[in-house]
Design goal:
The protein has one domain. It is built from four helices and no strands. Helix 2 runs parallel beside helix 4.
Length: about 140
Amino acid sequence: MAILSSERIWRILTNIWTGLFIIFLVADFTSKNRFEYLIAPFSVIYIGILGLYVGTKEFDRWYEFHEGRHPGEWFVILWTVLVFGLLGASISLGGDYKVSSEAIADYIMVLSVFALTQKSKSLHKRRLEQKRRRA
């Protein structure tokens, strides 16, 4: 196996972009949307990298190359805390502090990707169990 597998590279990039994007969203919020014009391009890059990582991971799972465990629950928890934190701060601080619609869209995308990967994992486990019973 290669020193850095394709899945591992995408996982590292996804983790880096997740951290940077979340910091950026908080910075934009606290600056009263001063950097709003950059959120959409960063969002597209983030969702693209997340999609490549998840696609690679699921492909590897189905072709028995997947190693290790990197639960997506942490992404969901992190994004949930971020979104609810920003919404709560927006309500308590007033109208000058707004949560960008792209942040909400990215949260929905993370939830969707997580739901799809959970279903894929479940189907894969069922397939393996059926395979073992036949053997």
